[in-house]
Amino acid sequence: MVETEKRISTAQLFTVIFILGMGLKILMLPVLMLKVVGRDSVLGLAGMGVLELLCLGAMLAAVMLSPEKSFFDMTVELVGKAAAKIIFAFLSAFFFFKLLLLVGEVRVFFSENLLQNFSSTVYSLPLCGLCVVMGMGTLRAIGRTSQFLFPFIAVAMLCLFVFIGMGVDYSEIFPLGDYGFKSTFTNSFKHSMWFGDYSSLVAVIGSVRRTKHTATAGVIAGIIASLTVIFYMLGLTASFSNVCYLLRFGQNVTGMSHYALGDVMQGRLDVMLFCMWIVSVLVEAGFYSFTTVSCLEKVIPVKKELLSLSAGVLLFAVLLLWQSTSDLQAFAINYFSVPAAVFQIAVPVFAIIVTAVARRREKKKRGKTCGEYRTLQTETANTQCDVKSEGAECEAE
Amino acid sequence: MKRSKKILIYKLSCFLFAIVLLLLPQRALPQSDIQVLATVLGIDGTGGNVTVAAQLAVPVAQSGDGKASTVAKATGGSISEALENLEIGMGRRVNFGHLSTVAAGKGMLLSDIKEFVSYLMSSGKVGPGAYLVYCSHSTASEFIEQAQKMGESSDAELGNFIAYNKSGNHVTTATALKFLQTLHSTSGAACLPCVQLEDENSESNPGDSSVGEGRGGAASEKSQSGAGGLPTESEKKQEEQKSEEAEKSDGSKGESENESQAKSESGGNSENGSQQESGGSGKSSDGKKSGKETGTAEKKKLVAADSIAVYGGDREEPTVLNALATRGVVWQDTHSNYGLVELRNVLIDGQTVPSVAARLSGKSVKKSAKIVKGENVLTYKIKVKLKLDDSHICANPGFFGLLKDKLEDEFESVIRNNLAFAVQTSKETGIDFLGIREWFHKFCRKGAENFDLSSVIVNIETKVIIQT
Lengths: 397, 468
Prior knowledge:
The complex is a heterodimer. By secondary structure, chain A is mainly α. Chain A has helices at 10-27, 29-37, 41-65, 71-79, 81-113, 120-135, 139-167, 181-189, 214-240, 253-261, 269-277, 279-299, 304-321, 325-335, 337-379, 388-396. In chain A, 74% of the residues lie in helices and 0% in strands. The model of chain A is unreliable at 384-397 (pLDDT under 50). Chain B is of the alpha/beta class. In chain B, the strands form two sheets. In chain B, strands 1, 2, 3, 4, 5, 6, 7, 8 and 9 form a nine-stranded mixed beta sheet that branches. A four-stranded mixed beta sheet of chain B has the order 10-11-12-13. The relative contact order of chain B is 0.10. At the A-B interface, helix 6 and helix 10 of A face helix 1, helix 4, helix 6, helix 7 and helix 14 of B.
């Protein structure tokens, strides 16, 4: 059972869900989808977003249903140790690849826009270092960090989006539906690796101080994050719908807001705002790292710190060997779309099954205990004090 | 993990990070000595022989002084080669991060400008918000050289000029992204504002000499209504009188008349102030006197010509629209919401008001495309809010009450005439620079299927509100 002081609050869960829903999707995905899918990428993104919200709902249901146990313990109880290890190995590989993708995109953004003459290997080091530190931390630390940074992220995002909202001609989005539903869906589906971020909420199951508003807050956070991504996608599509070939991979929310500001003489105010926003991506990277390490811990029974360090070293090594983020993205699109889609749906479904079964078992166990208590109570009045603790639970029920 | 162990790990991490910082690339020279900032870029030529000229800000170590600017030119077989040669010639890397304006030289072909701008944007050298202008009377290199000299002697730099025009004048501006976006639309046409430099003392060209247009920036002087509508009877009579007077009078008299005509319906431009100060040769008030008297060649003024260059249709060369068509284009441009507009020689109840200036405080343009009895019909609904600039008119409430309605009707008529002329020009040239086909493609797919620009019916509804 997770100690109370190590659990995250509803507000922290809200911020974590918002960051998870927004970070990876705003960085490079809109540019990729616009290049691949075309003008109808807005529709594709909206469709994938709806699917993702359903998955979020399933994860939140698992969070609310779960007894006071972690997802990992419940899985072991359900399927046994051996099968659980296989599942956790797959999960850790999936989350590690998502982390790799995220860090790769952060790297390409900085190398395209800000640090063109700086070796990406050098600034990948602190990035991987951050992942190592957050990987070995606690969920509560991540929750508190995201809660602390959330106002800055929200203000920066609001400013950036106000700029985009004011400066873009949204009639350029039309006409929609030119490419056909099948083509749009197929091409959007290829980007499944960029979705399914809420699967990493397996790490918070059993670790949330639940209230009656927890589920509502989580859903609202997910909806706001999805709408944010769609709004940005609309701005990008409206600006580049006829000239997708001009898009560069470094182009994202900062480039858009700079353009929408309308006057290049004002300098790069957008970069300052973007620097505030990008901490959300770094928090998301830390969360993926934490989830990866948590899964790995169940597979390889060594100290968490060592696992986190190993994962960080492996991440750095892969980034060093796999210099081209474009290749990484192409790999994710061409080979990982189906596995990613399977994970996106399978993990929430599995989480619900695990938590539902665990909850049922917990209830049975309590029922049995209460039954024994009542029998004991009627038989021996004097022994009530001995079974007082169990009795209190039963009385409460 | 024990606290002491954690502290040891943190210390080790800090040490490692310090090592990383030590390994950072070091440069013996400061950045300002190894790179220059390009603020304006001009392009001439065609594929195979491209000339680029860049106005560069070069930080110079001078006591109490900031930066100097210079113009560098280079040629190459392609634009990328030309830019590379520019850096080689300068001996420094050229940083395009602060590039505000790209100027296309006179006569640049459609295929070339498309290639050049696409290259600049896709390579990241030019941001999507950089302004694009067309040099209607010179090569881009000459233009930038002259503009740079002017910038050294005054604060009227090209970048500021364009930026001011966008936010403060009722003229059309084009960014690199907008230009390409509209060029690649189904309309296949895009506009660029024209800029030119002319001598301060020169006699302005009559430019586009079609009757009925008011004068624009610096190009022509017509005694027509500054709003550019077709002249009324009273205006024609007055014009004839004025032309007789102008022929008899000396230059100074023509000059004073031109000062009042300096304000154009399409908005002021940054050279208004200097134009009023220009001396010398009389400028014909009716534009009949053509030709240019060269004043002091060194003194130049930067003007937004009252015309735009249009790319598209079947033509490779740009088509330069006249002032009237240009104003029509500007009226339907949703991004040009500010600036000065003026009516001249307005007859109200037998009283002639020579000039009424008003400032745009808001404009809304709505377009609707539909099919009516098998015909494509595009309807413009333009709503304009104006604030009178001539406060003395407002001083007399009784007179103003009569004037207000009349002025609103006049402005509405002018807007309709201007836009109708632009539509007519579009049909005649076969270039859909108003984006009519694109609008049908977006919102009336049936109409776009068998679209014929020449047969589209365009209705224009205008509403002008003069705010008091």
